[in-house]
Structure formats: structure tokens, C-alpha cells
């Protein structure tokens, strides 16, 4: 589908749900600083876009829910900024994952590329990546904001480790594991019907005295995802996939600092040392702690602080919980216990603490790889009832 054009329903203009779904808009003028506001109107190909959201602070991409007409299923369409589309590393990595003949149980726990094509717009040619539609991500998966039971933590952790082991087996480092990039779905729900709230539009109003930015959108739209979709889901039907490989690198080719979120950085990243796939293991340890407790392991405040001050605070928080010699002491176990539900189980807590300790080694050479972690008693043993 090279050079394809695609009609998008611009979410900033319609005032009603009906307008949002069925109206077609003339191509809107765009600026170079806001290239994703509107792209093309010429023809619909195989996809009809019906919803919109923007991810990322720098507007490098936009995300759309689309109906894949050929297969009659809903998909997620990622449209990259034109100057991010040439020689795109994410596409290269996604194609490598898709082409892999590796028979690995983790392959189904990494988001798969369904299609890719180019879209001609007023600011150039945009790379479009098509993925399965997922219900939610780890950032908005629960409305109750409560800690989780052992069986839940074990099931999600196992799927994440399987996906990560598959990625690492192919010599790829994700570099950007975070709640927003862990995708959740319930088997048998999303492909048939997108479970989204009707869009709500709010016109942008500028405060008195502020300079109007012409590149800013005229309207803002709040998330259409329902919160708490997974709170009462059948645990055996929850599917977890590692998503967004936009920051991923091939292990032999990384020549720049990874895009890992600040509070999830491994010690070697903070100290600007040599790094490898072990940074993903550290990050996953932080995420599993957060999955279990619904609290970040290292709650860093960054507002108004310099990079040096943030690093210093991060290192201090690590020193309060983790021993440099790799031993996980009573301080960490108590810190974990205090944040878990009372019925998590004493044995489960001990197993989880040991499990996390293997990922949260300050020396990256001592961190257990994903393949080894999959055999840990916390995952293979039956959680204490």
C-alpha cells in the first residue's frame, strides 16, 4: 500500500458523536509544527478511522481506532510525523519480530504488526503502522486504584516476562517499558466492537495575557477509554502484550541513551555507564512492584529540579530500599508488605520479594534474565490462598 491516501475524520472539528462518525471534512490547513492535525481526504482505502487520540509530549505520532474493512475488525492505527517516518527504526524492528520463525510462547505477548503503508499529507509522507486494537493499557486499567491479589500479579507478570524473553531472544532491547506501553485486552471483546465512551470536545481557551499558539489544536478531547474495564474481568481471559517499540533498539546497534522514563531507569543509566538488555529487567521489576501495590517503587518528584538533583534523589531512594551487594533485606520486604492487601498471603509476599530482588539488582550482571525468571517459584508455584 505504498503511497496510499486515507480519509481521516478530524476529531477537533465535529460537535456531536454523529458528526464524529460520519462526516467528511475538507482538508484542513496545517503548520509544520502541528502536522498531525489533519492529513488527507482524497480516498478511503482499507481503513475507516473513527476515533482519535494523541500520545507523546512532542506530537511525534497520532493514534486512531480504525475499522479494517477487509477483515471487518477494529485495529489501532499509528500515524507518524512525516520527519519521523523516513528510515524508521520501529518498522525495522516490528518487521524483524513478524518475520521471526522462532517458536516462542512469548510471541503472542508482544504487539504484532498487522500492516504498514504510507500516507501522503500536506507535510510530506507519513508512515502508518497497523496493530490489533487493545482494550486499555497499564496506565488506565483500573478505576479502583487498589493493590492486586497474588494470582493476578502472577498471571500478568508471567505474560510480560514471556513477551520480554521473546524480544531479548531476537537481540532487541525495548528501552521504554512503562504502564502506558503494556497493553491489556480481554479475549473475544475488542475485535468485535470498540469499547469506547462517546467523545467529548472542549474548545481551547487562552488565558488573558497568554500568547496564542497557532499550532495548538482548536479543540481538546478527553480520553474515550472506560476506566476499570479490567477490574472484574476473568483472569484467565486477560491478554497482555508489550507494545510501542518506538524506542526499542537492536542490542548490537544502540548508540544513544534509551528513552526509559526517569523513575524506571536502571542504576547504570543514572550513572551513564554501559547498558544492555538488563535495563529492561530492572524496569520490569519496578513495574511489577507497581502492578502489585498500585504505587511506584521510586516516587520521584521532578518539577523544578535539575537532572543532577533528580539523579541524586533517585540514587538515595534506591539506597534506602536496596542493598548494593544484591541482598534484599527486611526494609524492602516490609516496604512491600505494607502496600499489599492483607490477604495477599505471607508466603506469597516472601516469594514476590525474592522474585523482585532478582530483577532489582544494582549490578546489571547479577540481574536474572527473563528466561530464568520464568522458572521462579512465584510464577510456577500455586499462590497461597
From TrEMBL:
Positions of the Protein kinase domain: 25-379
GO biological process: regulation of RNA splicing
Keyword ATP-binding included in the entry's annotation: yes
Taxonomy, superkingdom: Eukaryota
Matching Pfam families: Pkinase
Gene3D superfamilies with a match to the protein in the record: Phosphorylase Kinase, domain 1 (3.30.200.20), Transferase(Phosphotransferase) domain 1 (1.10.510.10)
Record carries keyword Transferase: yes
GO molecular function: ATP binding; protein serine/threonine kinase activity
Keywords per UniProt: ATP-binding, Kinase, Nucleotide-binding, Serine/threonine-protein kinase, Transferase
Protein name per Swiss-Prot or TrEMBL: Protein kinase domain-containing protein
Organism, as annotated: Blastomyces silverae
Amino acid at each position: 500500500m505504498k503511497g496510499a491516501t486515507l480519509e481521516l475524520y478530524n476529531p477537533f472539528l465535529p460537535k456531536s458523536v454523529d458528526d464524529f462518525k460520519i462526516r467528511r471534512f475538507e482538508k484542513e490547513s496545517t503548520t509544520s509544527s502541528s502536522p498531525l492535525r489533519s492529513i488527507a481526504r482524497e480516498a478511503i482505502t482499507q481503513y475507516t478511522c473513527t476515533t482519535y487520540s494523541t500520545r507523546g509530549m512532542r506530537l511525534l505520532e497520532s493514534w486512531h481506532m480504525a475499522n479494517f474493512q477487509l477483515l471487518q475488525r477494529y485495529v489501532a492505527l499509528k500515524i507518524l510525523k512525516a520527519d519521523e517516518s523516513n528510515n524508521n527504526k520501529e518498522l525495522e524492528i516490528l518487521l524483524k519480530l513478524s518475520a521471526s520463525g522462532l517458536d516462542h510462547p512469548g510471541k503472542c505477548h508482544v504487539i504484532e504488526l498487522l500492516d504498514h503503508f504510507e500516507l501522503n499529507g500536506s507535510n510530506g509522507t507519513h508512515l502508518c503502522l497497523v496493530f490489533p486494537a487493545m482494550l486499555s493499557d497499564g496506565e488506565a486499567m483500573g478505576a479502583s486504584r487498589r493493590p492486586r491479589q497474588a494470582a493476578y500479579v502472577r498471571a500478568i507478570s508471567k505474560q510480560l516476562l514471556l513477551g520480554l524473553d521473546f524480544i531479548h531472544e531476537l537481540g532487541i532491547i525495548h528501552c521504554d517499558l512503562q504502564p502506558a506501553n503494556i497493553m491489556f485486552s480481554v479475549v473475544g471483546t475488542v475485535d468485535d466492537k470498540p469499547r469506547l465512551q462517546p467523545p467529548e470536545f472542549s474548545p481551547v481557551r487562552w488565558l488573558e495575557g497568554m500568547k496564542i499558539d497557532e499550532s495548538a489544536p482548536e479543540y481538546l478531547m478527553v480520553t474515550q477509554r472506560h476506566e476499570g474495564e479490567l477490574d472484574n474481568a476473568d483472569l484467565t481471559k486477560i491478554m497482555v502484550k508489550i507494545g510501542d517499540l518506538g524506542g526499542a533498539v537492536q542490542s548490537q546497534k544502540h548508540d544513544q541513551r534509551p528513552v526509559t522514563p526517569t523513575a524506571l531507569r536502571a542504576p547504570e543509566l543514572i550513572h551513564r555507564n554501559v547498558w544492555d538488555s538488563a535495563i529492561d529487567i530492572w524496569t520490569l521489576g519496578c513495574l511489577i512492584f507497581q502492578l502489585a501495590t498500585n504505587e511506584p517503587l521510586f516516587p520521584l518528584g521532578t518539577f523544578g529540579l535539575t537532572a543532577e538533583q533528580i539523579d541524586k534523589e533517585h540514587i538515595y531512594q534506591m539506597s534506602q530500599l536496596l542493598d548494593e551487594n544484591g541482598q534484599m533485606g527486611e526494609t524492602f520486604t516490609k516496604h512491600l508488605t505494607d502496600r499489599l492487601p492483607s490477604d495477599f498471603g505471607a508466603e506469597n509476599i516472601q516469594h514476590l520479594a525474592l522474585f523482585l530482588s532478582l530483577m532489582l539488582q544494582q549490578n546489571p550482571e547479577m540481574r536474572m534474565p527473563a528466561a530464568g525468571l520464568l522458572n521462579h517459584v512465584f510464577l510456577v508455584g500455586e499462590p497461597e490462598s
